[in-house]
Amino acid sequence: MAHRQRHLRIEEEIDSGVAELVPDPDRARSWTLIVNGTPQSHVDLDDPAYLDFEYVRRLGHVVDLAAPPGRPLRVLHLGGGALTLARYVAATRPRSAQQVVEIDAALVDLVRRRLPLERGARIRIRTGDAREVLARAPEDSFDLVVGDVYAGGRSPAHLTSAEFFTDIARTLRAGGFFAVNLADGAPLSFARAQVATLLTVLPEACLLADPAVLRGRRFGNLVLVAGHTAPPVAELTRKAAGDPFPGRVVHGEELTRFASGAAPVTDATARPSPRPPDGIFG
User: Fold this and answer.
1) Least buried of 41, 43, 99, 205, by fewest C-beta within 10 Å?
2) Tens digits of residue pLDDT in 41-74
3) Whole-prediction pTM value?
4) For residues 245 and 203, what is the distance between their CA atoms, to the nearest angstrom?
């Protein structure tokens, strides 16, 4: 494995290309993980409850509201990165049992060595394809499933279909939620199709995003939350409005209108999410 360190920046070859760990100049022992030029995660080793990325804050709100404060959760993370959200769950909900699925074994090794987990964190990391690992998960086994799998800045096609979402629904406990990070820009065709698809499987859903992203004014992240029962829309709305970059929550008839005209995606028709515009990550 090739490895070099310059000015505290760490760069290593991984299975999917090149990973960099870039120190945060504003927070001691904080790092941003960049894979093939795309920022993937931000981790504060001294304060794992600190969430820097806008969309990860939205996912953190879902964690906060998935059960009464402090109650342990059973969580499945599809996509590992630097384990930011898994660290957050461990810090805010001690004794939670978590599984993380990450396809890149060399990336997992880098994160374990350079960004070690706190002792006592009940986080099990499995190397493999997210859908293949999901297929082996028992029914009714998770309070929360988080989807955040990207390759080359794009969601893989096989993780966007109704068949995939049906398998996720199978693993959710009563009252559990699925939260997935979507990346899209105008005319939001991918996000609209994902909403239409998920509503065929889990009809209770809402969408959290920056208003500019929802209007198609810029490429960005949208967090889609769904379950067998309704997400806590009022509480999510309050939390999103209080973010450093305030977000909106779309639900009910407005969410139905958002997905209007979009055809649900199947394995036969699935495509990756759109490629991010050049220069979006600086």
Assistant:
1) 99
2) 999 999 999 999 999 999 999 999 999 999 999 9
3) 0.95
4) 28
